[in-house]
Design goal:
The protein is of the alpha+beta class. 28% of the residues lie in helices and 38% in strands. It has a 16-stranded antiparallel barrel. It has a four-stranded antiparallel sheet with strand order 3-2-5-6, with no helix packed on it. Strand 13 (449-460) and strand 14 (467-481) form a beta hairpin.
């Protein structure tokens, strides 16, 4: 909130003027607001600066910049405003920020002067330093300033090229990226060198000229290996790919009822046929201007936007007579809400993303059902990604706390139990050109079960990254034991091998499809050491019906209580198909998975969700899933026990009481939401929930189950 009546006066002056500008004629002469801007600057100098309220002065000066939108101030007036901003920053001890403001002021007007009444010796020294650098280095291009001075160093063919190269490096250090690019190009005109072209590409990138930077990085990637500079070529190709992936996109939606439509982006007229298509565009500030006629009446549209990397913006070209500038509308609305000028007019970030991206996530999820099974699962994950060198590493930890007292457990004389499972995991990947090799390892520890696994996947990018085949392998070794019993005393070893092959395809700019095939081979005894299977006489078994209650089962069963016994090997096969399509404000995803194994189980799983962008920061989605499966070939509702003439029992060699191996159907419905906030929406909050209804078609004790799953997660990404 604003702190003083004087600050309110200046803010109201700015807001009142902006309101007048918003509803004035669309076309305004350049420099029309110079006098008003000068009056506001003088008032801020006499009040806030004169009383050393530097923070408030900077806030009001930032708000005053809104008066110059759309070219309403001359370059000289804007330069004066920037010079005053730099003066206040220097007085406040912000020397680095002051230098940047002075540099911007001198670019607009090389003759700009400081406010003499408030510029002390320290301020003048900083300004003189910046101005002296500008005057000497901008007097002429490097080739014009060379004049035969200097010698060529070892390895260079031209002293002139080397001089321009050093000038480009100096400009880069001064953060004058436009001059850096000019000097680097001048050097390349004389002598083509990989290092010089890399400097050119980097300065173009830092100056938000990404389209040009990508072309230069690609040229380095193409030519550097020819001179043995393989690392430089690889890094340049990776950087070009990163910029292409992170390139902002603009989508312009024209109205249907406007004739003679002309749309200009940064002063360049756009062909009408590319409207409504995604236009790759450099990050930074851009101006959109449109004009036409609506029912014979001239209409217009103007909007300034600022695009960040990875950002995609859709702009509706709402042309109307005397349409106020949307940016001004936004400022006025913000000011009307009582926010400070700094909140309403934030300065554009002048930093460039680093190569390292860090991600951290925490999640708490839970499951419960009407069979007295409860699961609580907190988890934590962390990863580091190097976008330039194409590598990343990550780690995760998950804890499962399970409590169970389902009716079929109690029916086999096992008490209610509770146990915890600990799952640490690590992963990493490295890119080699168009190939990406990833690896992972995890450990799962329970009181009666131990599992360790390792795996690797190779992925490739073909046809300009529109076709991405992959091949993966995973091995795990499990020990199935008993609680409070050493694995060396009782432990069944299980080996598991999995091979996954797949391919992803970009069908068009909004549609992605993938297919995959998975083979899993299990070798070992998967039988549960606690599960007892009821046995029935041959004449009783036909009378047993699904869902028979505990007392009835105990009444009809034979006295023998053998443990579960499953086959000692199993081969699983699954094929999956998925497709995702992006609409203007929504995305739909659907997948189908078909499954079969050597135990005779066949299954189908269909999953779909529709994600809708309620706001730019808020996405919601409904979710639906259907699963159906047949029983394993040895599964029986009522297993029959045979007896010899002397009364000895002959048990079925294979037997199970696992309802998940019987015939069943399951339906899941639910939804979720994700809210992104913070700088560049780098923080995310996710909430999801599902209800799962399962119908067991041929099982003792239970016929159905209703469960619920929920998860709340938070993640952050920073560079």
């Amino acid at each position: 909130m604003l702190g003083t009546p004087r600050q309110l006066v200046w803010l109201l002056a700015v807001a009142s003027f902006l309101w007048g500008v918003a509803w004035a004629e669309p076309v305004q002469a350049a420099g029309a607001n110079d006098e008003v801007l000068e009056g506001i600057i003088d008032g801020i100098l006499e009040s806030e600066v004169g009383t050393q309220q530097y923070d408030k002065a900077l806030q009001n000066l930032e708000a005053a910049k809104g008066i110059c939108e759309g070219g309403a101030c001359s370059a000289e007036a804007e330069a004066k405003l920037l010079a005053v901003v730099g003066t206040v920053q220097a007085l406040d001890g912000q020397d680095g920020a002051a230098k940047k403001s002075f540099k911007q002021a001198l670019r607009k007007d090389s003759d700009v002067e400081l406010p003499s009444k408030f510029a002390n010796d320290d301020v003048k020294s900083i300004f003189a330093e910046v101005k002296g650098t500008k005057s000497t280095k901008q007097a002429a291009g490097c080739r014009g300033r060379f004049k035969g001075r200097g010698r060529k160093p070892f390895g260079w063919k031209s002293a002139e090229a080397f001089f321009c190269y050093t000038e480009a490096k100096a400009a880069e250090s001064d953060e004058d990226y436009g001059r850096c690019a000019d000097e680097a190009r001048s050097s390349l005109e004389v002598e083509s060198r990989t290092g010089t072209r890399t400097v050119l590409a980097r300065c173009l990138e830092l100056g938000n000229r990404w389209n040009e930077a990508i072309a230069e990085y690609q040229e380095v990637g193409r030519t550097a290996p020819k001179s043995g500079q393989f690392t430089a070529g690889r890094k340049a190709r990776a950087r070009a790919a990163t910029l292409q992936r992170r390139m902002p996109a603009l989508n312009l939606k024209p109205p249907d009822d406007v004739d003679d439509l002309v749309v200009k982006l940064d002063g360049t007229e756009l062909p009408l046929e590319i409207l409504e298509a995604e236009i790759p565009i450099d990050p930074g500030e851009h101006e959109i201007v449109a004009s036409g006629k609506q029912g014979g009446t001239p209409v217009g549209f103007s909007q300034n936007i600022e695009l960040e990397p990875d950002e995609s913006i859709t702009v509706l070209l709402t042309l109307s007579p005397g349409n106020p500038d949307p940016q001004t509308q936004k400022i006025l609305k913000c000011l009307a809400e009582g926010k400070t000028p700094r909140e309403c007019l934030p300065t554009a970030s002048e930093t460039v993303s680093g190569d390292l991206t860090y991600r951290v996530g925490v999640e708490a999820s839970g499951y419960t059902d009407d069979m007295d099974v409860d699961v609580a699962t907190p988890s934590l994950s962390f990863s580091v990604e190097n976008t330039t060198d194409g590598w990343g590493v990550g780690a995760a930890f998950l804890l499962d706390v399970v409590t169970a007292a389902s009716i079929d457990i109690l029916a086999t004389a096992s008490p209610r139990w509770r146990e915890a499972r600990y799952v640490p995991a690590i992963n990493g990947h490295k890119k080699f050109g168009d190939w990406d090799v990833s690896g992972r390892a995890s450990l799962s520890r329970e009181p009666d079960y131990l599992s360790g696994s390792v795996g690797a996947t190779v992925t490739a990018d073909f046809v300009q990254k529109t076709v991405t085949p992959s091949l993966g392998f995973e091995y795990s070794h499990d020990i199935n034991g008993r609680t409070q019993t050493d694995f060396d005393v009782f432990g069944k070893r299980i080996n598991r091998f999995a091979i996954t092959a797949g391919v992803g395809m970009v069908l068009d700019k909004a549609t992605f499809a993938s297919t995959s095939f998975v083979t899993v081979i299990e070798d070992g005894d998967l039988s549960k050491p606690y599960r007892h299977v009821p046995m029935f006489a041959a004449d009783v078994a036909p009378q047993v019906s699904p869902g028979l209650v505990i007392d009835a089962v105990n009444f009809f069963r034979e006295p023998e209580r053998p443990l579960e016994q499953l086959p000692l090997s199993r081969k699983r096969f699954a094929v999956a198909f998925a497709i995702a399509h992006r609409f203007a404000d929504a995305t739909i995803r659907a997948s189908e998975r078909l499954y079969i194994d050597t135990w005779g189980t066949k299954a189908t799983t269909t999953d779909a969700r529709f994600m809708y962008d309620l706001l730019k920061e808020l996405r919601i989605w409904p979710h639906a899933r259907f699963h159906a499966q047949t029983a394993a070939s040895f599964y029986e509702l009522a297993y029959v026990i045979q007896r010899t003439p002397d009364g000895r029992a002959i048990l079925p060699s294979l037997r199970t009481g696992d309802r998940e191996l019987g015939p069943l159907i399951a339906v899941t419905v639910g939804g979720g939401m994700r809210y992104e906030f913070g700088a560049r929406r780098s923080l995310g909050l996710s909430l999801a929930g599902d209800f799962i209804y399962s119908r067991f078609l041929d099982h003792l004790f239970v016929k159905q189950r209703l469960g619920g799953f929920g998860a709340l997660g938070f993640d952050a990404e920073f560079e």
